[in-house]
């Protein structure tokens, strides 16, 4: 879930989808082909450095320029394209502010001892043998309670990555487990915006949608837990022998106390009370700064002669707390707000590309092409899944991956006698959860930036996320739990 309270369901539902009859499917796909080709070349032949450290960003801008030229050749006004880009950029303003606050949160939670305390107690409770399944469950519980995969990653997700890394577990595995649990909770929580949006687009009610979605979601998360349980048996617990040393180093550097947990508890409590994410995260930053002064004066003194400047630096830029353990030195560092700039630039460039593609009518044209090949019930489900996946790649936004297919396919489901909850479930199974698997999608960029693990590193281990579309197609292929309209039969 993207925590943007300024994007209301009404606004999204009323969003106009631009259709351009001058544009054919081949012209609509040209920018996509060029984008994917450049990305593939950058990954496989240029080691991700084709344009230096900002390769993906520049590639997205190149794709946007190609789409812009295509729009001009098909009689689309430049003002229309610029307007759509502006609308896209406005839609990610709050998420960008959230990213800045998450950077500040990571810095202040480090110097206040919140993250070290989470690692300290977590090392004593979570062993490598249960760590990955436990991470899935913990993330799922928090996400169901808050309705937000973003908040989950920014709080317990960061802590779990820190604990698991100290235990010697692959960060990609940890991030995959956190994301799997977080997106399960996001899908099943009535507080989630995407869980409310999908049934609104399909024409069903929230709780009918959640009940119907459970048929595919519960088996998928069950398989995910089983796989992580098996993976856990293969983990070499390289961190076990060093745990006592790690605990001693943390205790020597920071003042560790259970009072520090009041900070994350306050943030989660505010989210549960439906406080705006910006307010909740800002509160977390302020409380952590106060706790740093109270509990960690020596840490602040080691960072700067002034406690005030130490706190400001932790919010804005790189901060590293030195310990006598090299492993902890790598762990107890933060980039602050500055560390989020790469991710924010990626989101901005993705919104430029997606906005131009929407402005020239390419998104609608590609979705219509997929709809036209849906001659059977299974074909309709497959077209919906492919449309959601494609829009997550092209539009770089999970909202559009729900809105556009929802509008385009709604009548087709009705024509085949399918109840609307089939569509809403498929939108979530393929639109919501796969957004985090695309590096330049707002969700993929956010999660990799917050957890400090690249999408390529956690992709395979985000089992719940890539398995969900296959599950929904499996149910469609064998007509399992496919609900029909009254008086209709499969």
Automatic annotation (TrEMBL):
GO cellular component terms, semicolon-separated: plasma membrane
Entry-linked InterPro entries: Na/H_antiport_NhaC, Na/H_Antiport_NhaC-like_C, NhaC_Na-H+_Antiporter
Transmembrane segments: 28-46, 58-76, 96-123, 130-150, 156-184, 213-233, 253-273, 278-295, 339-357, 369-395, 458-478
Gene Ontology molecular-function annotations: antiporter activity
A Pfam family annotated for this UniProt entry: Na_H_antiporter
Compartment annotation: Cell membrane
Residues in Na+/H+ antiporter NhaC-like C-terminal domain copies: 181-478
Keywords: Antiport, Cell membrane, Membrane, Transmembrane, Transmembrane helix, Transport
Principal location listed in the UniProt entry: membrane
Domain of life: Bacteria
Membrane topology, from the record: Multi-pass membrane protein
Entry similarity comment: Belongs to the NhaC Na(+)/H(+) (TC 2.A.35) antiporter family.
Name the UniProt record assigns to this protein: Na+/H+ antiporter NhaC
Gene name for this UniProt entry: nhaC
